[in-house]
Amino acid sequence: MIKKIVIAIVCMASVGMYAQNGTVSPYSFFGIGELRTSSTVENQMMGHIGVYADSIHLNLQNPAAYGKLGLEVMDREGLVAYTAGLSYKQFRLKSFEEEQSSTATTLDYLSLGFSLGKGLGMGFGIMPYSSMGYNFVEQRSSRGQALTNIFSGEGDLSKVYYSIGYEIIKDLSLGVTVNYNYGTLSNERLQQIEDVQFGTFDRRSSQINGFDFNYALLYTPSIKEDYTLHTSVRVNTQGNLVSKNRRNLGSFSVATGGNIENIDVNLDANNLRNTEFKIPTTTTLGLGYGKDYKWFLGAEYSFQGLSSFENPFLGTDNIVYKDASSLALGGFYTPDANSFNSYLKRVTYRAGLRLDRTGMVVNDVDINNFGITFGLGLPLGRSFSNLNLGFELGRRGTTRANLIEESYFKVNVGLSLNDRWFQKRKIN
């Protein structure tokens, strides 16, 4: 059993290391990059909602769900669930004048969860927290000459987490997740003036780390036989991140691209060598209803006081932040989970949609995101394991005010595998 787990982890991690290319979104220019989803493929395909929990799937958004892990299968304990997800994303970037396409492939999560006894479960894993990956050009006139600014950035923040959940009384579970976030973000601006031999550069890098916590309450009472009400409250506490910064200014040859002068800026003089910035608290309320192992429909609303966010070192002039919010709807349908005659009847069909008010206001325009999700959960044999395929269509931003409209198509592949990680001896 352990050998199987190790092989699965090594294979998925190896693929991820060589596939990572977090984002090509121009909106990753702002803040700490594009924040990544923290949900499994199953939850992503239901509009990214995390209110639903069962006894065989990991719910990475809702630590209270670990209290239900293994409750209705095997011997109520000894269940191990390991899950991994990959995604491939196509971008179409459109301005008022032109259009371009690009792609990104990532390892989205690698996680393990264990049932430790009746109503007690834990899990740990690794996943991206945010990604920066942009490259765009700004052209304007300065004193009658063409001035070109080339902006680029790259880097990822990752997080490792540990979660624990416990069912304190029947149908009521509490959970907590500890996240440690870390990584490096790099930004560069190159400036060139028409007919001038040399250009200038401004390069900045930040090594970032810090903790945040996610608390959750999950209440799932039975309304009548086989029907369950799902309610959830999640609070992702303020993330306190510390950034160790470096900045270089200099000039380069336009003809060769080689550096002419490179100055390491004394950031200590302006108290910018080590800075702190806070990711505001996010609160999520969830409500759903469904028939056990048959169908489910739910909704979630999240809100975040993003207006208090600032990063003095990576700050820009053309953006302000206001409070963010998100509304998501989603559900699933399984025709007959116990069917012996039809494989298609055992397939789980998922769908959802979401509307995000990101809180970013760029050039006085609100940047919003809308997405439609759908997918399939394909059983693997007669076990509780399954292969999950998902698809997402969405749009973010606008072409107004010299901005970029970003349309995307995302394909997700996830494995959710289940087995016993120990068995009690029946004969000594």
Structure description:
The model is unreliable at 5-10, 12-19 and 422-428 (pLDDT under 50). This protein has a 14-stranded antiparallel β-barrel with strand order 2-3-4-5-6-7-9-13-14-16-17-18-19-20. The chain has one domain: Outer membrane protein transport protein (OMPP1/FadL/TodX) (Porin). It starts with a helix and ends in an 8-residue tail after the last strand. The chain has three helices and 20 strands. The protein is mainly β and 428 residues long. It has helices at 2-19, 41-44, 343-346, and strands at 34-35, 79-94, 99-117, 120-142, 145-169, 172-193, 198-219, 222-224, 227-236, 239-253, 259-264, 274-279, 282-291, 295-304, 319-321, 324-333, 348-362, 365-379, 386-397, 405-420.
Number of domains: 1
H/E topology pattern: HEHEEEEEEEEEEEEEEEHEEEE
Instruction: List low-confidence stretches.
Output: 5-10, 12-19, 422-428
Beta-strand proportion? over 45%
CATH superfamily: Outer membrane protein transport protein (OMPP1/FadL/TodX)
**Largest sheet, described in full?**
14 strands, antiparallel, barrel
Averaged pLDDT: 88
Give the total of beta strands.
20
What percent of the residues sit in helical stretches (DSSP H or I)?
Answer: under 10%
